[in-house]
Design goal:
- The protein is an alpha/beta fold and about 550 residues long.
- Helices cover about 25% and strands about 20% of the residues.
- It is built from 14 helices and 25 strands.
- The protein has helices at about 15-25, 55, 105-110, 120-130, 155-165, 200-205, 255-265, 270-275, 310-315, 320-330, 415-435, 435-440, 455-465, 515-535, and strands at about 5-10, 35, 65, 80, 130, 145-150, 185, 190, 195, 215, 220-225, 230-240, 240-255, 270, 285, 295-300, 300-305, 345, 360-365, 380-385, 395, 405-410, 445, 465-470, 500.
- The strands form 7 sheets. Strands 7, 16, 17, 18, 19, 20, 23 and 24 form an 8-stranded antiparallel sheet that branches.
- Helix 1 (about 15-25) packs parallel to helix 14.
- The protein starts with a strand and ends in a 10-residue tail after the last helix.
């Protein structure tokens, strides 16, 4: 086939994880690295202006436009399931929120038998690539590739929400990223001087001048190539041509929690019975592939208000739009620098939880769904999500064709625990909004509706308004040797296959308690170090299947 070449390392997916891996593996000029990205370059203005997520999500130029199956727990609704289709992946279209989660998340991974993944193990990795506006200290680093800044716009309605939350018993904090994120504060964001800071900008672009790094865009992987139980190459379609490249050391799959299990299954790794249904030759029966899907379901209560500015009315004013554009052009400040959510809060849905199990994303605007215009009345949204859902879903191929989008079943609200947390979460939102600090704006519940008062009715309101907050993880989880559903080991090597790792959000055994992008970068940083360590010790064996 045309274009056959050989590299030491081939990375599939130039998203949040892939860009880190490309940088770290190509740092040694003796390593040749090929990075394959199915999307295109990040050469569109809305990838860089922070508010551009409004135009990128739901746009086939920048979003793979996946949809879930009909969700029984959401009254049969089908959800849009955005995934980044560009260098930088989801970090080019996401909320830009810098969040690590809670130290207990990682200590729980370690308690599962995953040595090296406890909080004390991963905290230095979070710090090592950070360039935090607070400077170097106990919790943050400076001078690294991953820029973090404070927001560049404030809203009176959000300041009042902080006061109301404090009145309701949620403490004010300065930093969510110390190991405990309990409290309320403005989010820190992945921006630099008012521009989005994606993993492509932070990690990939500084490495592009290296002669040992080759980046291929519009390279849609069709399957992994094997010789026995060793991964030896990658087949991909590019501009209508089927190409193959081969690898001397390892293939690293970093296509994300949706595409990584899809590529595994198309390559013959997964549940053997399911693969045979679609005419795929089974290379290795690994039943955990595509299982264990976890996501944060956000419930989006909307409140109409009076006597306070929100983005809804600014959006509809040509004069104010012009002022916003001018403020951004001159000072890189104002609403065009806004992340989708500016204010965050973490609390417990009930005292039975040892650490906060709810996260708020509060916005000075309201709309029915991403891609829609804001409502024609002043309002704010107090989204709330269950941080540690017990519901589990699946990612499975629909056919043997790489062109067919996978079947996504999130199974939201399928457990009694998740249903109770949803009801309690909406009641907590109401309690905060009822506090004196917000009453001066006469808030009126627009959605799901103040008329819903019983647990049954409130749960139905959650089913009608719940939607993904874009944090899928866990579909190729790491686990110990006796875990039958583990896809990788603690060093992220695919079980039963040599020369092959998965390094992205899909390896999380349990979802982190917050936004998942920066934990994914940590996994990539740690994974790259493991690859280089194992090469130095010549330790890349064929692993036992769980």
């Amino acid at each position: 086939m045309p274009g056959d070449t050989t590299f030491d390392y081939v990375i599939i997916g130039a998203g949040s994880a892939g860009c880190v891996l490309a940088n770290r593996l190509s740092k040694d000029p003796r390593n040749s690295v090929c990075l394959l990205e199915a999307g295109g370059k990040d050469n569109w203005i809305w990838f860089h202006i922070p508010v551009g997520y409004l135009f990128a999500i739901g746009n086939p130029r920048s979003d793979w436009m996946f949809k879930t199956e009909s969700e029984p727990g959401l009254n049969g609704r089908v959800l849009n399931y955005p995934r980044g289709k560009v260098l930088g992946g989801c970090s080019a279209i996401n909320a830009m929120i810098y969040m690590r989660g809670q130290k207990e998340d990682y200590d729980n991974w370690r308690q599962m038998g995953l040595e090296g993944w406890g909080w004390d193990d991963v905290k230095p990795i979070f710090r090592c690539h950070l360039d935090h506006y607070l400077g170097a200290g106990e919790h943050h680093g400076a001078g690294g590739e991953w820029r973090v800044e404070e927001p560049r716009v404030r809203w009176a309605i959000l300041d009042s929400f902080i006061e109301a939350a404090v009145e309701a018993g949620i403490p004010r904090v300065d930093d969510f990223n110390t190991g405990s994120n309990e409290g309320i504060s403005y989010f820190h964001v992945n921006q630099k001087n008012g521009r989005r800071w994606s993993s492509a900008r932070g990690f990939l672009k500084p490495a592009l001048s290296r002669p040992n790094l080759k980046v291929e865009t519009h390279a849609h992987v069709t399957r992994i190539l094997f010789e026995g139980r060793r991964a030896v190459g990658v087949e991909f379609m590019q501009n209508g041509t089927l190409r193959r490249i081969h690898v001397r050391q390892e293939i690293v799959l970093s296509a994300g929690a949706v595409a990584s299990p899809q590529i595994l299954q198309l390559s013959g790794i997964g549940n053997g019975a399911h693969l045979q249904e679609h005419g795929i030759e089974v290379v290795h029966h690994l039943p955990g592939v595509g299982e264990n899907l976890q996501d944060h379901l956000q419930l989006r209560p909307i409140y109409r208000v009076e006597g306070v500015r929100t983005l809804n009315e600014d959006y509809r004013s040509l004069i104010k739009k012009g002022h916003m554009a001018l403020e951004y052009a001159l000072f890189r400040r104002g609403p065009l620098t806004m992340a989708p959510s500016q204010l965050g809060a973490f609390t417990r849905s009930s005292p039975e939880y040892a650490t906060p199990n709810l996260q708020f994303h509060i916005q000075p605007l309201s709309l029915d769904k991403f891609g829609d215009e804001p409502h024609p009345f002043p309002a704010f949204t107090a989204s709330v999500c269950n941080l540690r859902p017990t519901s589990r879903g699946t990612i499975r191929i629909r056919s043997g064709s790489p062109q067919d989008a996978p079947s996504i079943r999130s199974n939201y609200l399928s457990t009694v625990e998740d249903q109770q947390v949803a009801v309690d979460a909406l009641r907590i939102v109401r309690r905060v909004v009822s506090m004196p600090a917000l009453q001066k704006y006469h808030p009126q519940e627009y959605k799901p509706g103040a008329h819903l008062t019983s647990d049954e009715d409130i749960l139905n309101g959650a089913r009608e308004t719940g939607t993904t907050i874009f944090h899928p993880v866990g579909t190729a989880k790491m686990g110990v040797e006796n875990d039958p559903m583990a896809v990788t080991d603690a060093r992220l090597r695919v079980r039963g296959i040599a020369g092959f790792r998965v390094i992205d959000a899909s390896v999380m055994p349990a979802i982190t308690s917050g936004n998942t992008n920066s934990p994914t970068l940590m996994i990539a940083e740690k994974g790259a170090a493991m690859i280089l360590e194992d090469r130095a010790s010549n330790a890349v064996p064929v692993l036992k299947s769980a």
